[in-house]
From TrEMBL:
InterPro entries: ArgJ-like_dom_sf, Peptidase_S58_DmpA. PANTHER family: BLR5678 PROTEIN, D-AMINOPEPTIDASE. Belongs to the peptidase S58 family. Gene3D superfamilies: L-amino peptidase D-ALA esterase/amidase. One of its GO terms (molecular function) is aminopeptidase activity. This is S58 family peptidase. It comes from the Bacteria.
Length: 350
């Protein structure tokens, strides 16, 4: 693998032709996304307006009223430089009772209120005859590409996003991922899925990728960071901070404790990409099961699911990088898309 062209070809060959096996240990579902877990849907609202480059992404875990039918859930905080809402109660009770909303750091408050208003529509007695609700809102800082002080995300946008989720959804520079950077390239939304035959179950992953130092980047096990740095020459560096949110869904009948163990394995997937969860990064993984009344297998049988969590995370981040498109935003800042960079490297070799 001496030539640059051979390295790039290897990456693209693995990505395009071997997604069902090859470099991957697990086969993927039909969409190779988190929505391969039946009942899970995803939606986006995007702001693409000059210096405003941001948005909202919503993940609905089920088609039923989740507030009335809470799902088993576990969370792992790999590094806590973050401003989430809802993790404390998930840690205590081990259940998810709302859709999950992703947005930029300074829009967490509006995302919380928008989620509450959405849930109140179908549960009008919340806070009266019924207990209050625990929305799960997670964030990354998109302030390099987005004028984050403009507070462009509104409650209405959050509610509209929650009401328009679907099985098929866009990835890359979309929704909450619009203004995100990853390894000094354009980051954003990525997804993947792994079918785990030992448990006859699917594990789907969705990431909001906004982290990583370019020099450390590895793609499909191939070190590419320094080569891309040399190609870009003048680029705004990115340290291994800025955050990543990893969401995992499964139809396996797992309990909250087991889901937390699975969520922790997201860190292994990030390590394969070259991340070490730097000081200023908010790296959070959340895993939930769509089985509201779990009948969990013995922990000794979880190994394949743990492996799928690591592989699915790695693949979802690569998906975000390859699906993202070039974005220019706040103060003229811009991030190039990995696909454009790889094309440029190929042409450079001709």
């Amino acid at each position: 693998m001496d030539s640059l062209q051979a390295r790039i070809d290897l990456i693209l060959e693995r990505w395009r032709d071997e997604r069902q096996l090859g470099y991957r240990h697990f086969k993927s579902g039909s969409n190779d996304s988190i929505t391969d877990v039946v009942g899970v849907t995803v939606g986006h609202s995007t702001i693409d307006n000059g210096e405003l480059q941001t948005g909202v992404t919503a993940i609905s875990p089920c088609v039923e009223n989740i507030y009335q039918n809470a799902l088993p859930c576990g969370a792992a905080v790999l590094n806590g430089f973050a401003k989430p809402i809802g993790l404390v109660q998930i840690e205590e009770l081990g259940v998810l009772e709302t859709p999950i909303v992703l947005t930029n750091t300074l829009s967490v408050g509006r995302a919380f209120t928008g989620t509450v208003r959405h849930v109140l529509k179908t549960n009008p007695e919340i806070g009266r005859s019924l207990p209050t609700v625990n929305p799960l809102v997670l964030e990354c800082n998109d302030g390099y590409l987005n004028d984050i002080q403009a507070l462009a995300v509104t409650e209405e946008m959050v509610m509209e996003t929650l009401e328009s989720t679907d099985i098929v959804f866009e990835r890359g520079s979309i929704g909450a991922g619009r203004g995100m950077s990853c390894f000094a390239l354009k980051g954003g939304i990525g997804s993947s899925s792994c079918y785990v035959p030992e448990l006859d179950a699917t594990l789907g992953v969705l990431v909001l990728a906004n982290f990583g130092a370019l020099s450390a980047l590895q793609l499909e096990g191939v070190p590419m960071g320094k080569t891309i740095e040399q190609y870009l020459q003048q680029h705004a560096p990115q340290e291994d901070k800025g955050s990543i949110i990893i969401l995992m869904a499964t139809d396996a009948p797992l309990e909250a404790r087991q889901l937390k163990r699975i969520a922790k394995r997201a860190g292994a997937g990030l390590g394969r990409l070259g991340s070490y969860w730097g000081h200023g990064s908010g790296d959070i993984a959340v895993a939930f099961s769509t089985c509201s009344q779990p009948c969990p297998p013995p922990d000794a049988q979880l190994d394949p699911m743990l492996r799928a969590a690591a592989e699915g995370t790695e693949r979802a981040v690569i998906d975000a990088l390859l699906q993202a498109t070039h974005v220019q935003g706040f103060d003229g800042h811009q991030r190039m898309a990995l696909s454009d960079v790889l094309d440029g490297l190929v042409n450079q070799q001709k």
